[in-house]
Design a protein that fits this description.
The protein has 457 residues and is α/β, with parallel strands linked by helices. It is 36% helix and 18% strand. The strands form five sheets. Strands 8-7-9-10-11-15-16 form a seven-stranded mixed beta sheet, with helices on both faces. Helix 11 crosses helix 12 (377-384). The protein starts with 7 loop residues before the first strand and ends with a strand.
Amino acid sequence: METNKSQEIENVNLTEAPSEEHGSSRREFLGQTGRVAAGVGVAALLGNLGNYALSYAAGGPPIKIGILHSLSGTMAISEVSLRDVVLMAVEEINKAGGVMGRQVESVVVDPASNWDLFAEKAKQLLLQDKVSVVFGCWTSVSRKSVLPVFEKNNGMLFYPVQYEGEECSKNVFYTGAAVNQQAQPAVEYLMSPEGGSYKKFYLLGTDYVYPRTTNKILRAMLLAKGVPAGNIAEEYTPFHHQDYQTICGKIKKFAAGGGAAVISTINGDSNVPFYKEFGNQGLRAEDAPIMAFSVAEDELRGMDTTALVGHLAAWNYYQSVDTPQNKTFVANFKAYCKRNNLPDGESRVTDDPIEAAYFGVYVWKQAVEKAGTVDSVDKVRMAVYNQKFLAPGGTIMMDCCNQHTHKPVIIGEILKDGQFKSVWRSKGLVKPEPWSEFTNPEKGCDWITHQGTYQKK
């Protein structure tokens, strides 16, 4: 399968960005996250207190940023590491002189996987803590919850996770993938001879907006490509669902005779019992491969990967990406986690949302310095357009209009050690298309900018 060349741009050779520390892993975060949050919060506070004198001596008071990730609840398994890597990026930036000569102060809050609490915490960060930007959210329901808060108060959110599209807001920068940068090419790969020529698809997800909207697009795409409706199954489970015995039995029956693949949009800690039950019922990648969109290295480190070998995932970055800056990033993150006594320390791993959260901080930094101010959200927003950054996985670019990110697409196969082997990669960066050609061919979400005003195209 080849990615449409009209959706690609060539990689740009840039000088290396500031050094990156990273790594990530998440073995038994649930139950530990309260202690983790307290430990890192104290460390960040002490570091920030020590930075005040430096800040005033240099370019002024610290610049406050908000970190809005679940440190407890069902999504902590995925979100704690994003908090960690944002704090690491801030530490790097401060050591290198800060932003416009000012140190950066992080305000960390825990919305606890509670969607209503996300909105409350977002309001606190913008109105009470007076942060200049927020880095946060994972699930689309959490992003949808905070969106009115950011739009009403003209705040700025960097959102680091793949999502279903069908949205654009002048108050959000999307550093994760749109459907055409993950789900769509993943299913096209499975349908291709290279990917196994699969003809039956079981769409299984957590019951909320991202899986349902993504599968709506995928179903339309499959039907447009000639897959009979009878060859498409669709099912959803609640957050924190643990019993997958019946569902895996259905998948086994669906896959009988071959030619079937599972498309998983399961989020959070439900992935652990799903993969375990899948293996318990004797299902293997050779029988019905699972193509996952929300399982990466950080989730895998909490699982027994024996039965997972050969299953697939689609992302825009893996820890195994072989670039000099990625090796530095992985080593630095592991060192950061060890230095701050975080769970698993230097055994931590990195993954796609971790990388997207990391480079989002640097894109914001570059935009602030280009704008020459941190006080005007509108000026900083304009300065983000067309920004390039040498991320751990390679150069990324912010779209000039729709506030999404040009990224590569990589299909990875799970290895026994919980890492991924790349089996397919797009030829260049894939242009983000928030509105799918299969469900909204006439709709766009480009922003036309004229003298600081914004109108939807």
